[in-house]
Amino acid sequence: MDQKKIGLFLKTLRNEKEITQEQLAEHFHVSNRTVSRWETGTNMPDISLLTEIADFYDVDVRELIEGERRNMNEEIKDVAIKMADYAGAEKGRLFKWVRVISLIGTVLMTVAIGLQCFVYEPNLFRALAIFLSFIALIAMAITTFYANGILSKLVKKRGFVIATRVIVIVLIVISVRFILVAAVVIGLGFFEAAAPFKNLSGAENYNKDYLLSEYGADLDTGFFIFPDDTDAALEVDYNSSLKTGLFDTDGHIFLTATYSDEEFKNEIDRLSKITCTVFGSMHGDSDYHTEKILYDTEMYNYPAYISIDGYDTVYEYALIDEENNRIIYALLSYPRLTDLVKYQDYLKKDKLSYKTEDGSVLEKFSIYSFSFEDGIWSEYGPEDEGRTTTGNPR
Q: 235-244 and 198-201 as β-strands: parallel, antiparallel, unpaired?
């Protein structure tokens, strides 16, 4: 078989038809490059296309194979048609399991993306995972449609082609936008990681209102254990080192206050009665949960009133030094023990407990947070102060 002769014959037939390679490629749903390879003899048309090409050029299959015009009787033509049908059936058997598996994979990936969206919580990495899964779904769907012969039928429909082009353009725009946003976010993350901590010390720098406005939302805290001011204290020592990043606030706060006997008792009484009510939604009749402060005598070197213990890697507590009428109010966010050497006495006895193991830290203790639905957490907000509890207690 002389492939170059066949290719030249195919080119002659096309020229006789007065059509371009592009027009021929569009007719047989192949690429321009494929047609060019046929006509240069680099590749031959698929056997399943021979009959269609012969009919299109009004020649016989044998003439195509031999690369020149000859007379062919109907019996030979019938054999060629049966050969093409046989080749198609053989290919169908070969790809049967590929079609089935690709169809199952497409359905499962669609369900997986739907489940991810259903329980979605705002998170850059989860958003990226869903986006990449969606791109993989598109690729698998195209493969599935092609393997099952659906794609070849759809491409003949002008409306489908236009819709596909529009979707591709939209996806490209979204992808570019997503990449740019991700680049900006990563850049800001590196910039803020390199930014220094804001350090404050001295009683005159303690300002609860400032802490609430600047860090309360990010740390999911109302700073309930911290006193509104230090006017009632005899001695005060204040130290804070905080840095707000793109995703969280890192650092620590230590306020040490020594009281008279009466004021010490009053402050202990205040701490012991702290509660926080969290509402399930912004609706006036939403369910609510009221959590009491946790009193502990085991974890620290002093008895402690704890409002947050590891929730979102934050610790908020008040240590009671009864011997000296002293209270140490503390908040730690993502504590780095190497930075807290001089505060060792105010940390947990078991330093290994600060290491976050596998699993969600949101399931740890906090009076400011409550999960009304599985995996969905509600947080305390200042706007909830004084809100009437008309829903059901949880």
A: antiparallel
Q: Kindly give the residue spans of alpha helices, DSSP state H, lying in the chain.
A: 3-17, 21-28, 32-40, 47-57, 61-66, 74-94, 96-118, 124-147, 150-154, 158-194, 208-211, 217-219, 261-272
Q: Count other C-beta atoms under 10 Å from residue 223's C-beta.
A: 20
Which of 166, 193, 220 finishes a domain? 193
Asked which of 150-164, 226-240, 253-267, 365-379 is least confident by mean pLDDT, the reply is: 150-164
Q: Is residue 391 part of a domain?
A: no
Beta carbons of 384 and 280 less than 8 angstroms apart: no
Quote helix, strand, coil % in the chain, to nearest 5. 55, 20, 30
pLDDT in tens, 15-65: 888 889 888 888 888 888 888 888 888 888 887 788 888 888 888 787 878
Give the dihedral sign, CA 34/37/43/44: positive
